[in-house]
Amino acid sequence: MLNVKTYLDRSLTHGIGLFANQEIISGSMVWEFNQAVDLVYSLDQWDTLKASIAAQSFVNLIRLSYKEEGLIYLSMDNAQFMNHSKIHDNVVHGPSKSKMHAIRNIDIGEELLCNYLSHIDPDDFHARNIINEHEGGDWVVSMDKLETNLKYQIREEKFQNYKKTQ
Question: Domain locations in the chain?
Fold first, then answer.
């Protein structure tokens, strides 16, 4: 759950971004896991969810989730719009993975960015689809590739399940 005032706007990094709507002092807690607002799924629960909803709905959930230490997390507030930057990150996970802090002062209107690769599992949906896009070595998620891969995977699983019933 976000602990600072934010708003959504067009991001120069990727799509929609999360922006500070207050001055954030270095070291301030920006986000903290709260089971009333943030959802966590085991891999089995995630697979059950995947099988029970439309493929496009599942693709949308994947865009907003991340895998950490074998669990899938889905923030239900605007934290889900925090974009990735390897170079310009200003928010980091602390020793407790359930909290994120500002690593420097953040001005009003500045986008909140974190380095996804510092906390997600290597087989996370995003990590598998991150590409080196900027000359400076910054990274962004290739969502078109992710969506295409997932649609194919879901269709293939449905086809295999259909074949089992025949």
Answer: 6-165
Distance CA 74, CA 104 (A): 26
CA neighbor of 116 nearest in space, from 107, 108, 104, 125: 125
Task: Show the tokens assigned to 111.
Answer: 């986008």
pTM, whole model, 2 decimals? 0.70
Rg (C-alpha) for the chain, rounded Å, is 17
Q: Which amino acid is at 9?
A: D
- Summarised one tens digit per residue, pLDDT across range 100-155 is 899 999 999 999 998 876 666 666 665 555 543 433 444 444 444 445 555 555 66
User: Distance between alpha carbon 104 and the CA centroid of its chain, in Å?
Assistant: 21
| Sequence-ordered alpha helix ranges (H) in the chain | 43-52, 55-63, 125-128, 143-165
User: CATH homologous superfamily for 6-165?
Assistant: SET domain (2.170.270.10)
Residues 6+ positions from 15 with CB-CB distance below 8 Å: 83, 143
